[in-house]
Structures are given as structure tokens and as C-alpha cells.
Write a structure and sequence with these properties.
- There is one protein chain.
- This protein is of the alpha+beta class and 224 residues long.
- The chain contains seven helices and ten strands.
- Helix 5 runs antiparallel to helix 6 (187-198).
- The longest helix is centred in the middle third of the chain and has 14 residues, at 139-152.
């Protein structure tokens, strides 16, 4: 029901997840990032516990590959799960259980990994990896480009209705966490539009949290 990627920007160290699904509110259940640690997507028949657990393992010093091996050894019903991870060094790993749904497959590169299930075809994850690798600019721009590439390659077998993009960088909360929980229109484009609006304000939102005395004005009616 899902296709996604986890990624690291080699230049900035930012981590991100982007995901889309025919199911509602996919990003609420499946996307996890932690600054200085990594990014994880937990999907297919989703166990939300696996996202934080994989990040904890990487925070404690395991590589993405080692953390995924631990999930495979200790997770419950792992034959139904897909878990994707990227670590602080850009290493990637994926677990796809044999009971993943429909056409399922995965692809990995330096700093990026993609996986999916109930796909239109087996080429979608590689198209996503290639889309991220060849795109330029902010990691958010590259995540959107990768998801568009996956959709252009076929995407999910049926229509997608929800999507999300989460980015972390230097603070303990996601610096961007954009979601479309349900739409009859393409939710990836809904997220792309939200990103176009949010991106120029991202640094201001961080500054307002860290020290509002140094933050720019809000630029809304009533803020005189």
C-alpha cells in the first residue's frame, strides 16, 4: 500500500523521509527521523514501534545494517514488515518480510534507500533512488523529486490518497513535518505545494523556537 524513501543529505547532514500510500494518514504511522542519528520508514503491515526502536539502536552506535539485523532478530511478526533505515554515515539497509503485500521490492544507494509494496511494478524503488540521487538543492526538494519519479515510474498499483515528508536537522524535533492525510487529488503534489510555502520559512520557525527575541516577524495580519 506504500512507497517511500529515507535519505541523508551528504552536504548538510539533514535526514528525511517521504512516503505515499492508498491508506489514510500514512506519514503519521510510518515516518521517523532523529537529528544526528538517521531516518526510518516502517511500513507494509505497519508496526509503529519499529521506527523509534531502529533509531534508538542507531543512536546507541549501530549502523543501519546492524540495526535492521537486530530488528529482524527481535521484532514481532517481521515477516509482514518493511523497514528502511539510513544512518549518520549515509549507510542504508532495508528489511522486507516475505509476507509484504503484492509486488514489493527495494533499492539502495549511498545516503538513500527506497522500498514499496502493492506496487504497479518492481522498478518503482529504483526510480525513487535515482530521482533522489540526481536531484539538486535542499533535501526537501530532492525528496519531492524522488517521490515524483516513483509516481512517474508507476507508483502504487491503485490510486494514492495520503503522503508526507519529514525532515530533521540539529534540533530534537522535525524541522519540517508536512502531511496530507487524505486527498482525492495527488497527495504528493499537495505536499509539494506545502513545501513551496514552508521552505522559505523553515529557518524562521527554528529561530522562533530557540530564541523568539531574534526571530523575524510573523508577517500575518495583526502583527504590527
Amino acid at each position: 500500500m506504500t512507497f517511500s524513501l529515507v535519505a541523508r543529505c551528504a552536504e548538510t547532514g539533514m535526514f528525511g523521509v517521504a512516503i505515499a500510500s492508498s491508506s489514510p494518514a500514512v506519514a503519521a504511522r510510518c515516518s521517523y527521523t532523529r537529528a544526528g542519528v538517521g531516518a526510518v520508514a516502517s511500513q507494509n503491515v505497519t508496526d509503529p514501534l519499529l521506527g523509534p526502536k531502529t533509531l534508538d539502536l542507531m543512536q546507541n552506535g549501530l549502523t543501519a545494517a546492524e540495526a535492521i539485523s537486530e530488528i529482524q532478530a527481535t521484532g514481532k511478526f517481521v515477516e509482514y514488515r518493511q523497514v528502511l533505515a539510513v544512518d549518520r554515515a549515509g549507510g542504508t539497509a532495508i528489511h522486507s518480510g516475505p509476507n509484504s503485500l503484492g509486488i514489493w521490492t527495494q533499492a539502495m544507494g549511498d545516503n538513500v534507500a527506497s522500498g514499496g509494496n502493492l506496487l504497479a511494478n518492481a522498478d518503482v524503488p529504483q526510480a525513487i533512488v535515482d530521482g533522489f540521487t540526481t536531484a539538486k538543492g535542499h533535501i526537501g526538494d530532492r525528496l519531492i523529486a524522488a517521490m515524483r519519479a516513483g509516481l512517474a515510474a508507476g507508483g502504487e498499483a491503485g490510486p494514492i490518497h495520503s503522503a508526507g515528508m519529514q525532515i530533521c536537522d540539529g534540533v530534537s524535533w522535525p524541522v519540517a513535518d508536512l502531511r496530507c492525510d487524505w486527498s482525492e487529488d495527488c497527495p504528493i503534489e499537495v505536499i509539494a505545494t506545502a513545501w513551496d510555502v514552508y521552505k522559505p520559512q523553515l529557518d524562521a520557525y527554528i529561530q522562533r523556537a530557540l530564541d523568539p527575541r531574534e526571530a523575524p516577524s510573523y508577517g500575518v495580519p495583526g502583527d504590527e
